[in-house]
Amino acid sequence: MASFDVVNYSLRPSKSIQRQVVFDGVRLLQNAIDLNGMVYVGFGSVWFTDFVLAHRTLGIDDMVSIEADDVGFSRAAFNTPYATVRVLHGKSFDVLPTLFADEAIAQRPWMIWLDYDYEFDESLQTDVRSIAENAPPNSVLLLTFNGQDAKYGEANDRAERLRGLFGSVVPDDLSKSAVKDERLQQTLADLATDFVRGVVGETSRPGGFVPAFRLVYKDTAPMITVGGVLPTPSVVKTVSDLVANPTWPCRPVKPIVAPHLTIKEATVLQALLPRPEGLSRAAVKALGFDLEDEQIEVFATYYRQYPSFAQIIA
Question: For 263-288, what is each residue's pLDDT tens digit?
Fold first, then answer.
């Protein structure tokens, strides 16, 4: 069964926050370096939520969605939100080479977000190598993949599986504790980032790779997003300085696990923010309800990106 038949990707609060944070980061990059004429390449599925954000927040017109599922392709073609969205049928490792040869977009920077719903596997290796070798200068590369521990084998065999996927970037002394539970997601984020950096290094791209994105979020399964910029040599320092700034939003220390709030709860909480002293549990209780401390912390951190959902009855 296709993933769009299982989950409505537009209705997951943690995913929605993660997506907004990523686009906030790319907007900062747009202000820092020349990304004029940027093209968006991704997996729009039948919802196209990220494509709408790309158009509205980043001003991107030309967009390409890759869809492998036969029924999904038909539905995606029907649901395209804008006239400038192309839906191409096939696996990413087959479609991407055709895009690199497309003269209309081959010389323009891309925002490539390969938002997989499965674990990091050999097909992702192929896509990373293809992008590292062929993506236009100043492109932004993002990978999202499943970080659930069971996806990477039994606990005793997991370190060896990671070595098969990520190669020499996996340390010889990788401990068993680093490849289980929540610690596995942090390990995967580090290894995937190092893997991309290594692959880009092998291609001898003049500007290399500047890591810029590292986010873990969870609505159901834990999901990991990593990525960065494939800059021209002239903007390497600009990009490096930008993402090294403490205000850079796209490398949060903690996973994004958003509370599921009613519209009324989210509205009254938002009215208390921003709050220099922070949002306390006592302040929440004074509103007439209660939340766990971690839920309050996440909402206070991401209230600007917290989504509002409502059912419309015609």
Answer: 999 999 999 999 999 999 999 999 99
Task: List the structure tokens of 190.
Answer: 């580090």
Q: Which two tokens stand for residue 181?
A: 């539970």
Provide the 8-state DSSP code for 136: P
Length of the chain, please? 314
41 Cβ neighbours under 8 A, 6+ residues apart: 63, 64, 66, 96, 99, 110, 111, 112, 113
| Neighbour tally for 190: CB within 10 Å | 18
pLDDT of 309 reads 64
How far apart (Å, rounded) are the C-alpha atoms in residues 59 and 36? Answer: 10
Measure the CA dihedral 54/60/64/70, to 10°: 40
> In the 8-state DSSP scheme, what is residue 191?
H
CA distance 36 to 31: 10
Strand order across the beta sheet in which 210-218 lies? 85-89, 63-67, 39-42, 110-119, 139-146, 222-230, 210-218
Q: What distance in Å separates the CA atoms of residue 152 and residue 24, rounded to the nearest whole number?
A: 31
Cα of 20 vs its chain's centroid, Å: 10
Q: How far is CA 241 from CA 86, 121, 208, 214, in A?
A: 35, 32, 15, 16
Question: Token pair of 258, please?
Answer: 């958003």
* Statement: residue 9 has pLDDT above 80: no
235 pLDDT tier (thresholds 50, 70, 90) = very high
Nearest-angstrom CA–CA distance, 182 and 186: 7
Q: Which domains does the chain have, with CATH numbers?
A: 3-244 (3.40.50.150), 263-302 (no CATH)
